Amino acid sequence: MSLSPPSSDRQAPPGSIVYVIDDDVSVRRALGRLLRAEGFQVQMYASGAEFLTTSAYAGPACVVLDVRMPGLSGFEVLERLAARRPPLPVILITGHGDVPMATRALNIGCASFLAKPFEDEELLHAVRRALRQCDDAGGVVGSG
Amino acid sequence: MTSSVYADSWRTGTAPSMARALRLVCLGVTVGAAYYAGAALGLVLKLPEATPSVMWPPNAILTSVLLLTPARIWPFALLSALPAHVALETGAGWPLGLVIALFGTNCSEALMAAGGLRWLSDAPLRFDSLRRVIIFFAVVVFGAPFLSSFADAGAVSLVQDEPFWDVWIARLFSNTLTALVVVPAVIMVVRSGWRWVTAGPRLQHLEATVIAGAMLLVGVLVLRAQAPGQGVVAAELAEGATLAWLLPFLLWAAIRLGPAGVSVALLASALVLVGAAVHSHGPFQGLTPEATTLALQVYLIVISVPLMIVAALIEERKLVQQDVSDRLALEALLARLSGAFVKLPSDRMRDVFGESLRQIGESLGLDAVLLLAHAEPERRLVAVAAWNAPGADAARRALEGREFTFLPDLRQEPVVVEETGDPGSDDGGGGERTARSDVGIPLIAEGRVLGVLACRSSRSISPRESGLLEELRLVARVLANALARKSTEDSLRASEAMKSAILSSLTYGVVVIDRSGSVMTINRRWRQLVREDAVAARTQVGAHYLELFGSAFRAGAVWASKAAEGIAAVLAGASREFRLEYVRPTSGGDRAIAIRALPLNRPEGGAVITQVDLTDQRRAELEAQRARAELAHVSRVATLGALTASIAHQLNQPLTGILANAQAARRFLSSPVPDLDEARLILDDIMEDNRRASEVIVRMREFLRKDTGELEDVELHGIIRDVVRLVSSDAIIRNVAIVLELTEGPAVVHGDHVQLQQVVLNLLVNALEALGEQHTRDRRVVVRSTRAGYDAVEISVIDNGPGFDCPEDSAFEALYTTKPGGMGLGLSIARSIVEAHAGDIRATRSRDGGATVTFRLPLAVLEAT
Which of B837, B841, B845 is nearest to B826 (CA)? Predict the structure, then answer.
């Protein structure tokens, strides 16, 4: 299942950074490989707290964020990122998502909502769109 | 001590008051008439010109009356004589004062004589032993006249101016002689004269007639001797040989007719001699009247004393012989009674009791005999047997009709109730006839009152009067022993019957064997159980039980050897108990049989062997175990259902990794310069993810499989880690941290892997669900293992949730739940599994208010050692 706002599929802006936050090392590493294979610059974090406290970002960027994690959940991280201006686009991924959860995510301001396991193109499409969205908004500058 | 209750007809209701008054009047008239006659006779029995009478009967008559009547009517009896005394003596010209004084001295002599005799003699109205006669002589014949004569002499000498000592001597000898010959004769005649006349032996009647005729002849001859020319005999009699003619007859009377006969004969002789002397005949003629009187008195006293002693000694000898004879008869009776009850079964005793009562009644001369025994449980007295003499049915009915009013008071001593009738007859010492006597003698054996022997007799049972009470006591002792034996045998029979009934009612077979192994008892259930059992079917009373096992073992029953050894150990005292379960093949299928041997708790030793068919019980246990396993499985499925999201998450993670890695690899390999190193790393990750997914599935499948019930050594810490992995995703979803605090090293227990896994899972899921309702940030579940002593391990699942909202113990009750949609089986199943593993489980409140559930299991031997 993937839910995202309608937009055209264009190339991601150069220098874009994708932050992958997932407590499962295997999933995190696999997603990182996939994104790097597409030419994205990838930074990986094992938890939302780690990302929020250690990351520093500028320019087009987006976050691939797992919903179920020990400590801060994906929704809590999403809420904190959505509160920023301009917001950092977030793609939520989850292993047991449902429509209410996706609706809630979109309402908070997530860029896309993907249910595991998903096709690589789904993720890449969501990432590119998020990055463009970020680029259109003038990029983001901030720290986690 | 013997309790006696006297109810005499003088005072109580046995005789109407009019009749009593009439009887008193008759008594008064009789006494007055007798006194008058006696006094008149005394005045006649004087030698011419001599003042003192040879005999003065009034005093002796008064003494006799007092001895024959109760002391309370003595004043009346004495006063009855006063008019006669006054009338006669004032008629003789004596001054009234002297007359009254002499009446006083007469009364005083009678009172001293009667009172003294009653006080000193055991039977004052009997002259049938040397002792009684000597007392009679000392008190009545010599004592009382000796003392009263002083007053007599004083009064006469004072008023008539006669020499004191002359009067004293004359009155002493006169009163002594009269008391000696009159009192016994009157008493004997009044007491038994009529009875002797009507029922005495015919030979005695004949002898008495001959003696009386001879005396009469002597009297006639003496009186006629004064006529001249009367011949040699008359002359001899006239010259004083009268006594020589009388003496043989007196001896005859003493020897043959006893004290009664000799006393009457002596009185008659005295009257003959005194009468002759009055007419100047008989012995001692030619002397002064005073000397003749004194000589006659001394002479009669001298011959009367030895004759009465001879009569008393002969009677005493007869009584002793009779007593010996009675005693022999009693001993024969006792021997018969004892013999009748020896070796007699208790159920036949009742008939023998009836016959025994007949023998007792006839031997002891009783009117009715009643045997009563205390009946349990109220210890009510019930009649066992009764007998009455022919024609004495009323006596028995009266005895029974008394409703035993005197019996409830019976303790250890007999109670005698005597009712008295007319005075002056029978053998009473109080001057009253015993109308009837009732006696109740407690039947005592081994200190216990078992019943009562009640008797009625028309003679006195008072120990003062007869030895009957003592005889009844002896008889009662024999009957008490018989009753005791009956009671013991009845109890034994009842006990045997009860034991038999209990053994028959038991649902398990019982065999009792003695120390040597011989069968003593077998119950009915045993025979039912053992129809197809090689050993038990041949078990008979008297058979050697253990030897039967040897033949069974040789026939292929492997368990038989073990059973024989175990039972032998119990018999030898080497073992307090032996148990064995074995399978017995029968035509209806295999049966599970349990044998148990326990020592027989008695000095002679032995053993009780029980046999029970456990087949149905075992079947039910298996069914219950199966149902429990089924329920546990359903519970596991339900638990896993609740963990669906968690499991999906656990599967999705590796699947996502696999898919993403594969897609990345394809992209890497599609590049002009494929990065093969990266591709290898990707493949490694893919394989690892695949393993992860497999493990989830394996764990799930393992958890869902039905347990086989096979026990093995399992490591609890490993189980805990597996289960934590299973629920880890759920914990993440619920945002709960699971903390493991496990001891170093393995914790190995002997048990069912799946069941123990379920215990840990149920406790963890329970804790997670409890925390799911909390909105605190720090939500934790701690799983802790600790050693409990050296041979057990405790696992605690501790949460910081809201805790139990019910008593901790009820959390383990089946179907108890506080969660919406919960089945209430989790903790209940956990408890049943833990207890089936010989462990225990408990719930407590944590320090921070959450719940702690701890279960303890014994470590496997391997671990414990």
Answer: B841
